[in-house]
Structure formats: structure tokens, C-alpha cells
């Protein structure tokens, strides 16, 4: 009986799930025990049941632990928002937590061991409850939009091996408790806003292999304790605010392969590198390091593939051991103070891709400085060679013709190079940048230069080149920059140059060129921004048709022998800021068309033979600060406003017949006589004949108008379009109803402040169109509507949405109906490309965003400065920017605010206030709320906000922006603190995906970041709160073009996307 009680005792404490099975076993055995009364058998069963009881306790513990993991995961979920991919929808009680998306459990204990939430666009914060997932081995929250600090509870995850939180918006400091995770092998916190110092305790993490802390806001020094991590292979600390010296203890890291400590404020010398035998990449660029590069580096680091130490204060010679590093691919020591000669055995580096020694003090100024160039013909993979801005002397060897066929950049300028450009230069057929300015090169440009068909930049200015400009240059169809200035070229400009239709900068100044300018040239240079023909001996007149040079910003033709009149079409170069035409023989009058050049800042027409009066319209040019009209034959009144009210900004000497002006000019007063009226008195018969003719003509006009109105009453009122053949497209309400299938919701492609837009197909033309049905609150005003439409129809620009026709009629319910018909844009709106995250194919890379920004700016500039009457858009926003097949941007809804306000104002002033469009929240300028009226500056503000939206991927109305924090302030503050954390994550990811390719070109990544920064600065400057401080739209265009040129030079996005 005693044993029976013991067995009942064990049943009491067994897990409930085992009771049924144990009872089934127990009762038959109980009968057997009592029948046999065998003591040792009873003892055996006691042992069995004891083991069963003990084994049930881990099962209970496992269930309870699983529940803890589930609760921790749910706490994590509570802190996360913006689950656009719907991953977190599976995180609920309907599924076991091990089946939740992104969660992985171990096989044995069913505990959570891996959490992968990478690239889900999640926002919010990481809950401290993560510390309760104690079996975690891998955590990946990278490429999201998480904010807040890294929870200290991460230190509880003793089994953690991999922790990636990179590319988020995390702030705060790195928690000291992280060092408790002694099994961690990789820490990835790249591209956040992490502040504070690097914890010294990280040096205790004996298993750490990779430490990624780059692109943050870390301060302090590099802890010497990191030298204790003998397992470390990757140390990435670049682009922070680290100070102090590089700890010598890092020299103990014998397994280190990648050391990125560039773009900080580190000082002192480069420590010895005796134990870096495994090192593959050393990047210490853009610091304040001084002293010599360790001379033994080529022997102790035999496996190095890349050395980046540019932009420091290093001195001494290039170590002679460098050519021993046979694996070296990139060697960049630019912008330091290195002296001495370049090792002649650099050609031993057979794998070399990039050699950049620019901006040092290399060379002795004696023959032999360039002897190392011959050995580089052994570098069959060489892509970029930069030796410019040194003191290298000598002749370019003919062996340059044997350089790698893959070489793309050749930078040799600002040295003491003599001799000629070798004829064999034409063998380098993949060259896209050739820079040899500021040397002593003489002779002619070799004809073989025409073989370089990929060349985009050719800079040969400030040399002693002579002869004629070879006509073979016309073969360089991709050329964007051509600088041949300050040489001794003679003869005429070759007509073949017209084939270089991509030219943006052409500088032929200060040569001995002569002859006239072929008129075909100016017609070919549609993209030209800078043109300098000054200080030559050109004759003849300027081509009369310059209307194709609409993008011209600076135009210099001074100090030549030009004559004839100044072309009237020069007034169509609306981007023009600088115009120098002095010291020629131009005659005639100053063109009235100059009044259209509202971006002009500086005009010099002095020392010519100009006559007539000074156009009074020049005083209306808002940015003109310097005007020199001296030594001409001008006469008449001098205006008193604008540049003319500044005596120091306006020069007029040598014009004897000028008068008036401000008193400070001390010119004589102007006087005028009314001309005597002359003419014969008309006879009575003549007067009667004229009256009868007028009456008959009036009657005829009335009859025609009456007939026309009756016809229009039956069909509606229309406006023809020049876009269709024959220019006579007419559409009635019925036809618009049919082509949009009754304005069906399936054809609705957008709604906005002005109305709804439907896609339709005009059957007789089989042409897709967009029909905008305007929101109207009043009847009547058809006549004013048509008048405004006719005005809008005259507005034509490549980047404005073209109006095909309009319809003003009555619908079938008797309501007034007004609609505009536009070209259909197949690629939709900029809004959809920026924010439709579910469609991964709709992605704009940075080059495309830059092109769209330029397109929008050109459209705004045309509306403000290129129309007969200024048009203020009033509602600029991404949904009003449409993209065609070629991704060219077209601004829509321009002039509609004025159109609708005009229509409704005909009914009465009491109704107009509710009809005038007031812009869109987030994009409307702050001053509108104070004065209630729009100005061009309001459009510029909206444009600036759009630029910031394009670079950040954030709407100005997103939840992040409230109280005093706006998109503008957010970006402005980031400019001061480091920008990378605000960029659209997709742009950042694109750089990350291509990082391996970027490594092949030093500083490419930094250049791309700088382009991002430049783009953001333009957006901030355009959207400042004070209207008068905003960037002018033409200045924005210039800066955007400069950014694009810089981006194209990186080669990251290939060449022009269009």
C-alpha cells in the first residue's frame, strides 16, 4: 500500500498532458504489484514514474518560454508603424509566432532565433522588449525608417551573432550594454544619426568580425581598445566627426582586411603598418593627417587592393615600396603635400585601375619627371590617371598610345609639360575626359583626336598650341565641354563643330582666330550654356538667328572685329546673365528685345558704334547691376530707374548727345518739340465714302457674328488646336462624353483643385487625350473663358502641358460645362513615381530626378519671364507635374487659377472669393496666409518644397512634420548636421547596391553624396520663409545644371539619361 501511495504522489505532480497515458499504464500494473507483492518491481516503477515526472517540467517551461517570445514580438509590433508591405499582419494569435513573417525559430526548443525585417519601410522605434528574445542569434532591421535610440536591453541577447540596424534614422548613443553580447560577430549601424562616442567596451567583444559605424554623427576618438579585437576583419568608421589620432594599437589587428576611417577630423601621423598583412582596403581620406606615409607599406601590406589617403596634409615621398603591391587596383593620394619623384616602377602594378596623385608637389622641374608614364603601358586595366596640379616636367612620351584601351580619364594639366600632344592619343578610344590645361604644350592638336568619340570633356586651355583647330573635332558628338582658350590657334572655326550638338561650354577666347562665325554653328548649339569667343580677330556680323541658343547663360564676344547690328534674336536667350560685346564695331540700335532678358546681371556694349536711344525697358531688368554703354553714339534721354539710378553701376562716357538721367550723372536736361501737324483736309465726298464703307462693313461683321453664335449654340464653343493636322479639331460636349465613355470612373485619372481629369480617345484621330472638366459654381462667362483659353493656347514650351482644345457648352442637365483637352502623358505624375511604394518598377534614380527638376524650373521660368504677361502658377505640386514617354516633365494646370477667377468674376465680386484657387497645403508659401495674393516667389517656394520632397521621398504633410518642424526646416537642419539620413532610402540603397562598382573609382561615392547635398541646398534656398531671400529660378537652373554636370562626371548613372 505504501508503494501505491507513492505512485499516486507522482501522478499528482506530473504534467496534466501525461495523466491519461500514465493512468492507463498504472492501474493494470497496480493489480500486478499487489498480486505478486514483489518489492523490487515496485521500486522499478517508482523510478520510471520519477523520470516521467521530471521530463514533464521542461515541457511546461518550453510552453511558457514560447509565450514570452510571442509577447516580446507583439511589443515590438506595437512600436512599429508604416507596414506598407503588410508583413506584420501575420503577427497575431491565429498563428504560432514561429510562423510569423520575418521570424525564424530553432528546431529543438521552438524559440525565436532570427528576426529579419530588412527593407520593409518600417517606421517607429525598436521596443526594449527585444531584450526578452534571449535566444536571438540574428537581428536585421536594416533599410527602414526607424527612429529613436538603440534600446539598452539589446545587451541581454547573449547568443546574438549578427545585429544590423543600418540605413535608418536612429539617434542617441551606442549602448554600453552592447558589449555584453560576447558572441556578436557583426555590428552594422551604418547611415543613421547615432551620436556620442564609440564605447571603449566594444574592445571586449572578442568574437567581433565586422564593425560598421559609418555615416553617423559620432564624436570623440577611435578607442585604442579596438586593437584588442584580434578577430576583426572590417572596421568602417568613415563620414563621422571623429577626432584625435589613429591609435597605434590598431596595428595589432593582423586579420583586418578593410579599414575605412575617411571623412573625419583625425590628425597626427599614419601609424606603422607592420602587422597589416591581411589588409585589402585602407581609406583614411579627407582627414587632417600629417607626416609621411609609412615607407614599409608596400612590404608589410602585400595584399592591398585600394589606398585612399587623399585630402590630408601628408608630406614626404611616395614610398618606393608601393610598386611591390601587385594586387593594388586603386591608389589615390590627391591633394596632399607629397614631394619628390613618382616611382618609375609603377608599371609593376598590373592590376591598377585608378592612379590619382593630383594636387601635390611632385616633380623636380627637371627632365625625367614623367619617365614613370612609359611603365604605365603595362597596366592593361588602367581606367583613370590623374597627375595634374603638380610640378612635373618633361615631354609626354609616345608610349601613351599604348595605355590601356579602357582608360576613361586622363588628367595632366597644371604641370611643366612641354613638347606636343602625341599623335597616338587617338588610340585611347574610351577616353571621356582629357585635361591638359595650364602647361607648356605646343604644336598642333593631332588629327587623331577625332577618334575619341566618347570624349565629353576636352580641356586644352592656357597652353602654346597653334595651327588650326582640326575639323576632326567635329567627330566628338558627345562633347559637352571644349576649352581651347589662351592658345595661339589661327584660322576660322571649323564648320564641323556644328556636329557637336551636346556642347554646353565652348571657350575659344584669347587666340588668333579670324573669319566670320558660320551661321550654322549657332543653330546647332541648343544646349550651350557658356560661349566665349572674346579676344580674337573675328570679323563679319553675328548670325542673325540665335533663337536656338535658349539655354545660354554667359556670352562673350568682346575684343574682336565684329560689325553689323546686334541680332534681335539674342533677346530669346532668356537664361542670359552676362553679355560682353565691347570693343567691336557693332552699329544700329540696342535691340528692344533685350527687355526680355530678365536674368541679365552684367551688360557691356562699350566701344562700338551703336546709335539711337537707350531702350527705357532696360530699367525694368530686375537683376541688372552693371551696364556699360560708354563710347558709342547714343542720344536722347537716360532712364532714371533700375540700374540707371546707380551712378557706379551705369557707364555712359563718350556719348555726347545723352540727356536727362539722375542728377548725379550731371547730364543736360532733355527737351522735345511737338511736331507740327501737316496734311491735307479731306474733301466732303471722301468723308461720305469712308462713312458708307464703315457702315457696310459693320453690318457684314454683325451678320457673321450672329451666324457664328447660332452655330456655336448648337455645338458648344471650341478652340482649334495646332497640334492636330489641319489645325481644325472641334469637340462638342457630346463628343467629349463619348470619348471618355460618359466620364466613367474607370477613365478617371486624377482630381485636383481645378477639376477632374479623364482619359479619352478621339476616335477620328485615334489619339489619347486628357480631358479636364473644370469645377464651376457659376453660369455664364463663356466669352471670357474662351478669351483666356486662347491666351493659354499661345503659351508653348517643351516643359508645359500643351492645350489641344477647349469646350464651353451646356451639358444634358442644362448646367454650364467647361473643359480643357490636353495631351495625354503616358507615364503619369511625379507624385505617383515618388510615393507609390507598392509598384517597385516606378522608381526614379537621382539622375532622373535631377532632369525632372530642371524641366520644372525651365517651365516656371518661362511662365514668369517668357510670356507676354507673367503667369503665376499658384498650385505647383508633384501631381501637377506629368511625365511623357521619355520621362520629360510637363507642368500642368498653369494659368488655370487666373482662368477660373476670370470666369467667375464676371458674375459678381461677391462670388469670386470662393472661386480663386489658394494652392495646396504643404506647398503654398507662408506669405500667402498674410497677404492673400500670389507672386512669382510663391511659385519658387512651392518648387523648393518639391525639390526637397524629391530628394527625401517625404511629403511636406507627412506625420513627421508638425509644430515648428517642416520639411524645409528638417532639411535645413540636416545640412548642418550631415545629410545622408534624410535622403530617400531608395537613393541610398542604389549607392549601396553599386558599392562594389564605386570602389573602382575613388571619391565617386563622395561626389554622388555632394550632388545630393547640392540638390538639397537648392531646395532649401528656394523655400526660405522670407520671399525676398529665395533663390531666383534662373539661378536655380544654373546650379542644377552644374550639379548635373558634376553627376555625369562620376559616371555612376552612365551618360545623359535622355
Automatic annotation (TrEMBL):
<feature type="binding site">
    <location>
        <position position="772"/>
    </location>
    <ligand>
        <name>ATP</name>
    </ligand>
</feature>
<keyword id="KW-0723">Serine/threonine-protein kinase</keyword>
<dbReference type="Pfam" id="PF00069">
    <property type="entry name" value="Pkinase"/>
</dbReference>
<keyword id="KW-0597">Phosphoprotein</keyword>
<dbReference type="InterPro" id="IPR011009">
    <property type="entry name" value="Kinase-like_dom_sf"/>
</dbReference>
<keyword id="KW-1133">Transmembrane helix</keyword>
<dbReference type="Pfam" id="PF23598">
    <property type="entry name" value="LRR_14"/>
</dbReference>
<dbReference type="InterPro" id="IPR000719">
    <property type="entry name" value="Prot_kinase_dom"/>
</dbReference>
<dbReference type="InterPro" id="IPR032675">
    <property type="entry name" value="LRR_dom_sf"/>
</dbReference>
<keyword id="KW-0675">Receptor</keyword>
<keyword id="KW-0067">ATP-binding</keyword>
<dbReference type="InterPro" id="IPR001611">
    <property type="entry name" value="Leu-rich_rpt"/>
</dbReference>
<dbReference type="InterPro" id="IPR017441">
    <property type="entry name" value="Protein_kinase_ATP_BS"/>
</dbReference>
<comment type="similarity">
    <text>Belongs to the protein kinase superfamily. Ser/Thr protein kinase family.</text>
</comment>
<dbReference type="Pfam" id="PF08263">
    <property type="entry name" value="LRRNT_2"/>
</dbReference>
<dbReference type="InterPro" id="IPR013210">
    <property type="entry name" value="LRR_N_plant-typ"/>
</dbReference>
<keyword id="KW-0325">Glycoprotein</keyword>
<protein>
    <recommendedName>
        <fullName>non-specific serine/threonine protein kinase</fullName>
        <ecNumber>2.7.11.1</ecNumber>
    </recommendedName>
</protein>
<feature type="transmembrane region" description="Helical">
    <location>
        <begin position="687"/>
        <end position="709"/>
    </location>
</feature>
<keyword id="KW-0677">Repeat</keyword>
<keyword id="KW-0812">Transmembrane</keyword>
<dbReference type="GO" id="GO:0004674">
    <property type="term" value="F:protein serine/threonine kinase activity"/>
</dbReference>
<dbReference type="InterPro" id="IPR003591">
    <property type="entry name" value="Leu-rich_rpt_typical-subtyp"/>
</dbReference>
<keyword id="KW-0472">Membrane</keyword>
<dbReference type="InterPro" id="IPR055414">
    <property type="entry name" value="LRR_R13L4/SHOC2-like"/>
</dbReference>
<feature type="transmembrane region" description="Helical">
    <location>
        <begin position="7"/>
        <end position="27"/>
    </location>
</feature>
<comment type="similarity">
    <text>Belongs to the RLP family.</text>
</comment>
<feature type="transmembrane region" description="Helical">
    <location>
        <begin position="39"/>
        <end position="56"/>
    </location>
</feature>
<keyword id="KW-0547">Nucleotide-binding</keyword>
<dbReference type="InterPro" id="IPR008271">
    <property type="entry name" value="Ser/Thr_kinase_AS"/>
</dbReference>
<dbReference type="GO" id="GO:0005886">
    <property type="term" value="C:plasma membrane"/>
</dbReference>
<keyword id="KW-0418">Kinase</keyword>
<dbReference type="Pfam" id="PF00560">
    <property type="entry name" value="LRR_1"/>
</dbReference>
<feature type="domain" description="Protein kinase">
    <location>
        <begin position="743"/>
        <end position="1013"/>
    </location>
</feature>
<dbReference type="Pfam" id="PF13855">
    <property type="entry name" value="LRR_8"/>
</dbReference>
<keyword id="KW-0732">Signal</keyword>
<keyword id="KW-1003">Cell membrane</keyword>
<keyword id="KW-0433">Leucine-rich repeat</keyword>
<keyword id="KW-0808">Transferase</keyword>
<dbReference type="InterPro" id="IPR051716">
    <property type="entry name" value="Plant_RL_S/T_kinase"/>
</dbReference>
<dbReference type="GO" id="GO:0005524">
    <property type="term" value="F:ATP binding"/>
</dbReference>
Amino acid at each position: 500500500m505504501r508503494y501505491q501511495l507513492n505512485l499516486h504522489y507522482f501522478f499528482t505532480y506530473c504534467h496534466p498532458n501525461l495523466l491519461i497515458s500514465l493512468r492507463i499504464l498504472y492501474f493494470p500494473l497496480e493489480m500486478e504489484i499487489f498480486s505478486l507483492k514483489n518489492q523490487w518491481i515496485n521500486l522499478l516503477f517508482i523510478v520510471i514514474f520519477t523520470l516521467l515526472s521530471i521530463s514533464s517540467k521542461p515541457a511546461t517551461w518550453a510552453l511558457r518560454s514560447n509565450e514570452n517570445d510571442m509577447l516580446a514580438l507583439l511589443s515590438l509590433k506595437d512600436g512599429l508603424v508604416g507596414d506598407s508591405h503588410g508583413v506584420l499582419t501575420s503577427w497575431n494569435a491565429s498563428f504560432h509566432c514561429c510562423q510569423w513573417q520575418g521570424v525564424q525559430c530553432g528546431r529543438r526548443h521552438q524559440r525565436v532565433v532570427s528576426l529579419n525585417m530588412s527593407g520593409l519601410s518600417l517606421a517607429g522605434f525598436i521596443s526594449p522588449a527585444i531584450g526578452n528574445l534571449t535566444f536571438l542569434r540574428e537581428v536585421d532591421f536594416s533599410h527602414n525608417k526607424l527612429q529613436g535610440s538603440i534600446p539598452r536591453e539589446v545587451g541581454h541577447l547573449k547568443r546574438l551573432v549578427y545585429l544590423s540596424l543600418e540605413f535608418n534614422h536612429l539617434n542617441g548613443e551606442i549602448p554600453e550594454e552592447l558589449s555584453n553580447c560576447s558572441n556578436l560577430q557583426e555590428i552594422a549601424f551604418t547611415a543613421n544619426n547615432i551620436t556620442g562616442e564609440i564605447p571603449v567596451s566594444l574592445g571586449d567583444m572578442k568574437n567581433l568580425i565586422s564593425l560598421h559605424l559609418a555615416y553617423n554623427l559620432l564624436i570623440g576618438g577611435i578607442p585604442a581598445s579596438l586593437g584588442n579585437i584580434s578577430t576583426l576583419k572590417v572596421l568602417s568608421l568613415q563620414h563621422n566627426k571623429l577626432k584625435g589620432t589613429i591609435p597605434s594599437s590598431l596595428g595589432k589587428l593582423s586579420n583586418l582586411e578593410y579599414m575605412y576611417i575617411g571623412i573625419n577630423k583625425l590628425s597626427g601621423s599614419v601609424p606603422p603598418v607592420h602587422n597589416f598583412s591581411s589588409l585589402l582596403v585602407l581609406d583614411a581620406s579627407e582627414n587632417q593627417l600629417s607626416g609621411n606615409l609609412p615607407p614599409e607599406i608596400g612590404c608589410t601590406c602585400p595584399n592591398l587592393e585600394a589606398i585612399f589617403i587623399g585630402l590630408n596634409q601628408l608630406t614626404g615621398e611616395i614610398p618606393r615600396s608601393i610598386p611591390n603591391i601587385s594586387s593594388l587596383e586603386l591608389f589615390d593620394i590627391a591633394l596632399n603635400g607629397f614631394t619628390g619623384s613618382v616611382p618609375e616602377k609603377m608599371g609593376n602594378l598590373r592590376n591598377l585601375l585608378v592612379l590619382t596623385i593630383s594636387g601635390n608637389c611632385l616633380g623636380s622641374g627637371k627632365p625625367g619627371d614623367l619617365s614613370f608614364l612609359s611603365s604605365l603601358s603595362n597596366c592593361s586595366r588602367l581606367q583613370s590617371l590623374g597627375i595634374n596640379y603638380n610640378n612635373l616636367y618633361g615631354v609626354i612620351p609616345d608610349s601613351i598610345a599604348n595605355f590601356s584601351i579602357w582608360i576613361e580619364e586622363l588628367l595632366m594639366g597644371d604641370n611643366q609639360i612641354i613638347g606636343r600632344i602625341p599623335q597616338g592619343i587617338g588610340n585611347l578610344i574610351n577616353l571621356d575626359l582629357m585635361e591638359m590645361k595650364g602647361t607648356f604644350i605646343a604644336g598642333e592638336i593631332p588629327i587623331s583626336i577625332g577618334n575619341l568619340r566618347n570624349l565629353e570633356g576636352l580641356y586644352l586651355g592656357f597652353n602654346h598650341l597653334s595651327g588650326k583647330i582640326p575639323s576632326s573635332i567635329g567627330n566628338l558628338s558627345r562633347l559637352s565641354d571644349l576649352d581651347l582658350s589662351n592658345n595661339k590657334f589661327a584660322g576660322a572655326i571649323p564648320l564641323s563643330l556644328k556636329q557637336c550638338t551636346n556642347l554646353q561650354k565652348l571657350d575659344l577666347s584669347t587666340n588668333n582666330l579670324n573669319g566670320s562665325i558660320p551661321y550654322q554653328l549657332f543653330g546647332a548649339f541648343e544646349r550651350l550654356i557658356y560661349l566665349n569667343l572674346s579676344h580674337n580677330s573675328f570679323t563679319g556680323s553675328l548670325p542673325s538667328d540665335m533663337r536656338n541658343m535658349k539655354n545660354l547663360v554667359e556670352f562673350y564676344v568682346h575684343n574682336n572685329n565684329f560689325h553689323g547690328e546686334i541680332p534681335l534674336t539674342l533677346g530669346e536667350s532668356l537664361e542670359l546673365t552676362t553679355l560682353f560685346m565691347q570693343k567691336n564695331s557693332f552699329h544700329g540700335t540696342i535691340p528692344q528685345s533685350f527687355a526680355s532678358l530678365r536674368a541679365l546681371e552684367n551688360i557691356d556694349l562699350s566701344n562700338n558704334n551703336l546709335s539711337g536711344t537707350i531702350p527705357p525697358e532696360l530699367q525694368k531688368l530686375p537683376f541688372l547691376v552693371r551696364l556699360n554703354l560708354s563710347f558709342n553714339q547714343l542720344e536722347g534721354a537716360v532712364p532714371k530707374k533700375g540700374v540707371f539710378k546707380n551712378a557706379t553701376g551705369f557707364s555712359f562716357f563718350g556719348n555726347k548727345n545723352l540727356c536727362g538721367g539722375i542728377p548725379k550723372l550731371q547730364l543736360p536736361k532733355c527737351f522735345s518739340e511737338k511736331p507740327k501737324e501737316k496734311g491735307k483736309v479731306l474733301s466732303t465726298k471722301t468723308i461720305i465714302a469712308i462713312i458708307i464703307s464703315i457702315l457696310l462693313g459693320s453690318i457684314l461683321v454683325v451678320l457673321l457674328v450672329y451666324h457664328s453664335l447660332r452655330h456655336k449654340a448648337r455645338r458648344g464653343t471650341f478652340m482649334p488646336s495646332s497640334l492636330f493636322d489641319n489645325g481644325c479639331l472641334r469637340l462638342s460636349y457630346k463628343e467629349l462624353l463619348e470619348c471618355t465613355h460618359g466620364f466613367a470612373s474607370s477613365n478617371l485619372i486624377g482630381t485636383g483643385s481645378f477639376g477632374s481629369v479623364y482619359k479619352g480617345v478621339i476616335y477620328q484621330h485615334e489619339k489619347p487625350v486628357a480631358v479636364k472638366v473644370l469645377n464651376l459654381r457659376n453660369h455664364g462667362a463663356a466669352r471670357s473663358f474662351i478669351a483666356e483659353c486662347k491666351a493659354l493656347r499661345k503659351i508653348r514650351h517643351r516643359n508645359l502641358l500643351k492645350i489641344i482644345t477647349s469646350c464651353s457648352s451646356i451639358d444634358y442637365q442644362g448646367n454650364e460645362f467647361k473643359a480643357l483637352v490636353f495631351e495625354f502623358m503616358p507615364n503619369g505624375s511625379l507624385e505617383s513615381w515618388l510615393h507609390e511604394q507598392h509598384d517597385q518598377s516606378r522608381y526614379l534614380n537621382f539622375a532622373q530626378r535631377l532632369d525632372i527638376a530642371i524641366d520644372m524650373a525651365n517651365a516656371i521660368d518661362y511662365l514668369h519671364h517668357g510670356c507676354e504677361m507673367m503667369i503665376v502658377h499658384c498650385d505647383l505640386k508633384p501631381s501637377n507635374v506629368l511625365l511623357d514617354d521619355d520621362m520629360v516633365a510637363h507642368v500642368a494646370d498653369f494659368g488655370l487659377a487666373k482662368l477660373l477667377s476670370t470666369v467667375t468674376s464676371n458674375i459678381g465680386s461677391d462670388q469670386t472669393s470662393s472661386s480663386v484657387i489658394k494652392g495646396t497645403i504643404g506647398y503654398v508659401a507662408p506669405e500667402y496666409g498674410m497677404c492673400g495674393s500670389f507672386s512669382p516667389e510663391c511659385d519658387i517656394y512651392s518648387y523648393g518644397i518639391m525639390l526637397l520632397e524629391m530628394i527625401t521621398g517625404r511629403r511636406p504633410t507627412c506625420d513627421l512634420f508638425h509644430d515648428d518642424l517642416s520639411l524645409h526646416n528638417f532639411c535645413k537642419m540636416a545640412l548642418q548636421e550631415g545629410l545622408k539620413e534624410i535622403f530617400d532610402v531608395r537613393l541610398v540603397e542604389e549607392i549601396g547596391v553599386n558599392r562594389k562598382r564605386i570602389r573602382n573609382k575613388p571619391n565617386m561615392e563622395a561626389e554622388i553624396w555632394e550632388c545630393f547635398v547640392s540638390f538639397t541646398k537648392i531646395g532649401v534656398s528656394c523655400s526660405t520663409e522670407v520671399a525676398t531671400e529665395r533663390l531666383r529660378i534662373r539661378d536655380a537652373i544654373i546650379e542644377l545644371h552644374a550639379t548635373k554636370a558634376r553627376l555625369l562626371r562620376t559616371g555612376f548613372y552612365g551618360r545623359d539619361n535622355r
